[in-house]
Amino acid sequence: MPKRIGKLVYTDKFSFFIRYFAVFTLIFGLMTAIIFQLMRSTMYQNSDNTLKRIKEEPAMAVGFAIARTYEPNSVFILQDSPTSEETTSSSSDSMPVPKDQKNTRDGDQLRLGVNTHVLLYSKSGEMVNPDTFTGLADLPLDKEKLGEIKETTVESSFGMSEDYRYVTIELATDELGYYSSYDIKYATILVNVSQIKSSIETYESTVAIVMVSAWLISILASIYLSNLSMRPILISYQKQKDFVENASHELRTPLAVLQNRLESLFRHPEATILESSESIGSSLEEVRNMRLLTTNLLNLARRDDGLKVDMIDVQPNYFDEIFANYLMIAEENGKTLTVNNLIHQPIRTDKVLIKQLLTILFDNAMKYTDDDGRIQITANIKDKSVYFTVADNGLGISDADKKKIFDRFYRVDKARTRQKGGFGLGLSLAQQIIKTLGGKISVRDNQPKGTIFEVGLPK
Question: Which residues, 6 or more positions from 68, have their beta carbon under 8 angstroms from its beta carbon?
């Protein structure tokens, strides 16, 4: 079991899984932190604004504290932008008026209700207006970082924990106005946030559950993405493995023939060259096959690295010259070749690659037709594309083989192909050239027998 785990850890699939899983974990972690931070800042925004607002009105805070001492349920309203008449009657040295005695004012209002408390302290730090009902009577004076909003938890007279956000300020005598004669030096303004904190905890629990669920789902997503990422790599690796195996197999046969022929020469040291001509000829044939194979392999390797395309205007007579050579080859092999060059205007393509492509298709037709076979090559322009069609009356290709003929080293009839000097690399090269030129190739049956290859390239 430990060995299996060790092997799994060092696999590429596990490496991809760890990367995806780490990314998902980082994303969900950041999202959770941001949501929590935004939730807390927005939920506490009203209470913090209340504290900041009261902090700017020391006289009102003191008046509110004294009034609450005599009337615990009193409600005050702090309002901006008062009228000129009200400003005169509500100077800084006048006592704040309860809600039921105030006139309605235009502007922003701040309502101070039962959730707001103001504790007053003397210069010696003693509480001036203790409130035993709320449990705040035992709250000590906090002189550290005056003016900064903090949090605290207090146990009420009912034995319940109440959460508060508070700020402590130092009061100057000239700021107290009507209350300047009182022995008051500090004020602690508190806002009960127990319900808000409870709501935040509920929301945070919900968000945490959702994020953890999404994080667990991300494990499955990471496994899926790692498999998806590994798929092209595995396919490429399998193709490379098959390529090496097929190349080794193709090289093994001519090497075995060479070895047998050379050993035969050693067994007959007194034989003349004429008597050994069969062995020498077979050896040379296999050497030519090996050279052709290695050339094709090099071409494939270069194509995999990418082709450098030289796009130029190719004249129609260029194809006449190519087809003329094909006619000579077909005549020498006793086959009938019919050529129809219907291109009458220059086309923009790569001369070298297009010639190699046509040669591969022509050579393929030559190999798979009988001695009296017929081949037809047609070149014409339709719309914005140029089409090359190579048709033969050979044995044809089955539908199942049509899907595989462009794979490297794939041959429909291996014995027949080897006799003809083929290795199953030509059509693979042709497909790479067509993709490089931005074209397409199709294969269909010829009637009554044979195969038609049609290549479409942009002109």
Answer: 74, 117, 118, 129, 131
CA 127 to chain centre: 62
pLDDT of residue 340: 94
362-371 confidence digits (pLDDT tens)? 988 988 888 7
Supply the DSSP symbol for 179. Answer: G
Distance CA(182)–CA(123), nearest Å, equals: 11
* Pair type for strands 374-382 and 385-392: antiparallel
What are the pLDDT digits (tens) for 222-252?
998 888 888 888 887 887 777 676 667 667 7
Q: What sign does the dihedral 141-143-146-151 (CA atoms) show?
A: negative
DSSP state, 95?
P
What is the distance between the alpha carbons of residues 180 and 93, in angstroms, rounded to a whole number? 9
DSSP3 helix / strand / coil % (the chain, rounded to 5): 50, 20, 30
**How would DSSP label each residue in 166-177?**
EEEEEPPHHHHG
- Give CA 166 to chain center in angstroms: 47
Residue 385: how many other CB atoms lie within 10 Å: 15
- 8 Å CB contact between 313 and 348: yes
Strand partners, 187: 120, 169
Q: Are 112 and 77 in contact (CB under 8 A)?
A: yes
Distance CA 73, CA 226 (A): 64
Residue 150 structure tokens: 């903090």
The residue type of 361 is: L
Please, what are the domains in the chain? 45-192 (no CATH), 236-305 (1.10.287.130), 312-458 (3.30.565.10)
Distances (CA, A) of 269 to 260, 262, 284: 15, 11, 19
Lowest mean pLDDT among 217-226, 239-248, 340-349: 239-248
Token pair for residue 290? Answer: 């090996």
Q: Which residue has the higher pLDDT, 270 or 188?
A: 188
Are the C-beta atoms of 177 and 93 separated by less than 8 Å? yes
User: Look-up: residue for tokens 């046969």?
Assistant: 253
Whether the per-residue pLDDT at 354 is higher than 60: the answer is: yes
SS3 454: strand
DSSP 220-274: HHHHHHHHHHHHHHHHHHHHHHHHHHHHHHHHHHHHHHHHHHHHHHHH-TT--TT
Other CB atoms within 10 Å distance of the CB of residue 51: 21
Q: How many helices (H) and strands (E) does the chain have?
A: 13, 13
